[in-house]
Design a protein that fits this description.
Elements lengths: L24 E7 L11 H17 L2 E8 L3 E8 L2 H23 L11 E5 L2 H12 L20 H4 L6 E5 L1 H9 L10 E5 L13 H22 L6 H5 L25 H26 L60 E5 L15 E5 L7 H11 L1
Helix pairs in contact: 1-2
């Protein structure tokens, strides 16, 4: 089955629903806010990303096939055990990367422009195409001559056997405690090493390691040749490292179309996936409508139920508070609304309430003028407490 987060976009929510089937390949994309180069490669940023990625893979049951982190966005290709594992994986990864970058750059705003886009990859042809797309990064933008030369975090060198990826995770709580006590501590006491292993695509699960490296090398050579045909020169790794993290890409922002429901290579696989998705989301939507009607439906398997409404039980009305008129009446704007119960009355003032004729403000000159009736504490009856205090001072 799958996982539904939210409802369909046509129901007026801000995000399209997610449908993640157990053990299916997912393509993940995330972008920085405003296209800023907050992920610009550097020794500190690269170490941060690798450490968080290794720690996250150790915590969640997700097989990682490929990844790349550019200056303003990133891509992942992964297979989670189920939708819940995928949700926790993305939240832990992007959340910890964002906090680390904010500390490193002293950035006080958001890091990510929106939540990550997760698109299912439904067949073997689409799996290879998404891997090829991720491996091409760096060269296809004209930043470096080869994907192997990208100075940031990428899987290209590991896929061809030229690099072993290891992440160093820093326990922030233990490191902070060591700094607070101002004692010299061996960094190994609050750091851990996590090897980052890349799993082969399900379509290539039966291939040998040598064959996997050969196919990846072929993808990289094709990316290099395509980059040479598209551009005469490249920006270079040195220019990438020297760029300002707060600048945007010089290229005009391209208009993105509607997010596809899936990546597919064969129309038959796409149609079958869309049929399963429609059936699942229709069942989830029907249960959501029943939940809004205060019923208790049984949601589809592997789904997040819609939360119930927040309800406040109103206390009984005090006898001294009226709702039919007067200063303590409930205004019409707070009248009872369907499905929300009676509107709460105004809270009574502190102290015992009595109804009496009192003078508000200075003493009225016209004794025949009717005095406004209101509810006041008994200790304030007849005169203002400030006037009484002033009179006592004069006597002394």
């Amino acid at each position: 089955m799958g996982v539904a987060r939210g409802l369909l976009w046509m129901r007026g929510v801000s995000h399209q629903a997610r449908f993640i089937e157990d053990g299916s390949v997912q393509s993940v994309t995330f972008r920085t806010v405003g296209g800023l180069h907050l992920l610009r490669p550097s020794a500190a940023i690269n170490a941060l990303i690798l450490g968080v990625l290794g720690r996250t893979l150790a915590l969640y049951d997700v097989a990682l096939h490929a990844f790349v982190f550019m200056s303003n966005h990133g891509h992942l290709l992964a297979t989670p055990r189920n939708g819940e594992e995928m949700s926790g994986f993305i939240g832990h990864l992007l959340g910890n990367i964002a906090r680390g970058i904010a500390r490193e750059l002293r950035w006080s705003g958001h890091i990510w422009g929106d939540r990550a886009t997760i698109i299912p990859v439904v067949d073997e042809d689409a799996q290879q195409e998404r891997l090829r797309y991720i491996v091409r990064h760096g060269a296809k933008e004209g930043l470096v001559a080869s994907p192997l030369d990208w100075p940031g975090v990428t899987c290209a060198r590991a896929l061809v056997g030229r690099e072993e990826l290891v992440g160093t995770w820093v326990d922030g709580a233990a490191a902070y405690e060591a700094r607070r006590r101002k004692r010299s501590t061996d960094p190994s006491e609050y750091t851990s090493q996590y090897p980052i292993e890349l799993a082969p695509l399900p379509a290539w699960a039966s291939l040998s390691r040598a064959e996997l490296q050969r196919r990846c090398e072929e993808m990289i050579r094709d990316a290099e040749a395509e980059a040479r045909r598209a551009r005469d020169g490249v920006l270079g790794a040195a220019a990438v490292l020297a760029s300002d993290p707060l600048e945007r890409s010089p290229e005009p922002a391209r208009v993105r179309g509607e997010i596809p429901a899936c990546h597919w290579g064969r129309p038959g696989d796409r149609d079958r996936f869309l049929a399963r998705r429609r059936a699942f989301l229709s069942a989830h939507l029907a249960c959501s409508e029943k939940r809004r009607a205060e019923l208790d439906p049984e949601f589809p398997d592997r789904s997040y139920p819609v939360a119930r409404r927040f309800v406040v039980h109103q206390p009984s009305l005090p006898t001294a508070v009226t709702t039919s008129g007067g200063p303590d009446a409930v205004p019409p704007s707070r009248a009872a609304r369907p499905g929300h119960g009676p509107a709460p009355p105004r809270p009574p003032p502190a102290g015992a309430l009595v109804t009496a004729n009192v003078e508000l403000g200075q003493r009225r000159r016209d004794r025949d003028q009717p005095v406004r009736r209101t509810a006041v504490p008994s200790e304030h009856r007849g005169r203002s407490p400030f006037a009484a205090e002033k009179q006592d001072r004069r006597r002394r």
